[in-house]
Design goal:
By secondary structure, the chain is of the alpha/beta class. Helix content is 47%, strand content 19%.
């Protein structure tokens, strides 16, 4: 057991030290196609912030191509989250650590505060533990309480390895083609009832899955 623990610690050290470099080199080789990117280009051109959401298993590309944009990234407090946080900090994100399952109310309050102060929040609404492709409330409530739009992102990768993790995490191959599909900005009423909020979460979940299917076609 001690030898296994030592090996695990060594791997985590190497991950902390070099993973962000490897991720950056890999992402620079992608051949990207964007669909409806004008939706966020228009928001950013007007200086407007928003909430950006994408599934946990597809997060590598959205994190990469939104680097150095003054974004807030919500990352779990797990050891894997620690590795992701290091990568995101190297890409210019301000990282907020938290989990919807442990300290959800505090995290949600922080996300709303950042959003109200003109910061775009990027998150994975099925993370950090799943269920896969099931949207938690945070993205919708943050956008609704902050009176800003939610933009959903589907990501399709032609050549990839799918890990045996709960999120079926996708590791792209070098020089792979990738298709990124944005939703139009989704706005929410300020006075939504509990049922209306639940219905909008269901709607956004369905929409994000549709975007994911669209991104996966023709790859």
């Amino acid at each position: 057991m001690k030898l296994k623990a030592i090996r695990r610690d060594i791997l985590r050290f190497l991950g902390k030290s070099f993973l962000w470099i490897a991720a950056s080199v890999l992402c620079k080789t992608f051949r990207l196609t964007f669909v409806n990117k004008s939706a966020i280009d228009a928001l950013e051109a007007e200086g407007k912030n928003y909430v950006l959401a994408f599934w946990h298993g597809t997060m590598l590309l959205p994190w990469y191509f939104n680097r150095k944009k003054n974004f807030i990234a919500l990352v779990s407090k797990s050891k894997d989250g620690e590795l992701l946080a290091k990568i995101l900090k190297s890409w210019g994100y301000e990282v907020v650590r938290g989990s919807s399952s442990r300290d959800g109310n505090i995290v949600l309050h922080n996300m709303i505060d950042y959003s109200k102060n003109k910061r775009t929040v990027a998150l994975t609404p099925d993370g950090p533990r799943g269920p896969i492709y099931k949207m938690k409330a945070g993205a919708v409530i943050t956008a609704q309480k902050s009176n800003i739009p939610l933009v959903l992102v589907g990501v399709g990768i032609k050549k990839k390895k799918i890990l045996k993790s709960w999120d079926k995490f996708e590791v792209p191959a070098f020089f792979s083609k990738a298709k990124v599909v944005y939703s139009t900005p989704i706005f929410f009423k300020n006075d939504m009832s509990y049922k209306e909020t639940s219905d909008m979460i269901t709607f956004c979940e369905k929409k994000l899955n549709e975007l994911q299917e669209e991104a996966g076609r023709s790859q």
